[in-house]
Design a protein that fits this description.
A hairpin with a 6-residue loop joins strand 1 and strand 2. The longest helix is centred in the last third of the chain and has 27 residues. The chain is α+β, with helices and mostly antiparallel strands and 235 residues long. It is built from 10 helices and 7 strands. The chain has one domain. 50% of the residues lie in helices and 15% in strands. The strands form 3 sheets. It has a 3-stranded antiparallel β-sheet with strand order 3-4-5. Strands 1-2 form a two-stranded antiparallel ribbon. It binds zinc ion. The site of zinc ion has 8 residues, from loops.
């Protein structure tokens, strides 16, 4: 996967800024995988979307992710250091557009959720249950007991391992163990936004100093841009 040039990052940031988080994920996945038909992206299994977002993240910003999570028991802020290769390691074959895999478990025929499914249940009080009902092709999800629900969950996890990027975390302060969810779309968006704002500032400084156009400045390699910026003096 290629790193996005600065001009494309700015364009994506501009197009995504006013959109819902799920639409941003679709926008970023389309940028990551121009070989996928754009109209199919909302209907691909979430694991394929997450894989494309993580690969884009790695191409643009490298494989290491430094983040943090707050311990739900004591509030301690915990540092997270992740490697995208390890996150992607759980993936089997990435889904080709149009894939309609499903599983039979606990009397249900269920398919892997997509961005379109998440959008459809986003406003439901019990979104997890609504999502399952939404993705059930045959059977009655409302009749399942907890053990059956757990079996369905495990089945879906095996079907599409990257759909749910859950990380096991243990608090260094109180020992509380928990799972934290990594939102690949939000992660990529936050970094894209930070990079877009950095680029705009660089364009502003170099345009002010040299009178170059935005296109000329963005066409410079990052190393040249940094060298010229250093010559314009402290910001
Ligand atoms: Zn804690």
């Amino acid at each position: 996967m290629r790193a996005l040039p600065g001009s494309e990052m700015l364009s994506l940031w501009e197009r995504g800024a006013a959109r819902h988080a799920l639409d941003r994920s679709a926008l970023l996945a389309a940028a990551a995988r121009p070989d996928w038909p754009a109209e199919d992206i909302a209907d691909l299994p979430l694991g394929a979307i997450n894989a494309s977002l993580l690969q884009l993240r790695m191409a643009c910003f490298g494989p290491r992710i430094d983040g943090h999570a707050d311990c739900p028991a004591c509030g301690e802020r915990l540092a997270l250091a992740l490697d995208v290769h390890e996150l992607l390691g759980a993936a089997c074959e990435h889904d080709a557009p149009g894939s309609t895999r499903g599983i039979e478990v606990a009397g249900l025929h269920v398919r892997a959720p997509t961005l379109r499914d998440l959008a459809a249940v986003a406003h439901e009080a019990d979104a997890a249950r609504a999502l399952l009902t939404h993705c059930t092709l045959a059977g009655d999800a409302s009749q399942l007991d907890d053990a059956a629900l757990q079996a369905v969950e495990q089945g879906l996890d095996a079907l599409d391992p990257l759909a749910d990027l859950a990380l096991a975390l243990q608090c260094v302060a109180c020992g509380h163990a928990d799972l934290v969810q990594l939102d690949a779309g939000q992660l990529m968006w936050d970094e894209l936004e930070a990079q877009a704002l950095r680029l705009l500032r660089e364009v502003h400084l170099l345009a002010s100093a040299y009178g170059w156009s935005e296109a000329q400045i963005l066409a410079l390699t990052p190393a040249r841009r940094a060298s010229y910026l250093a010559m314009t003096g402290p910001p």
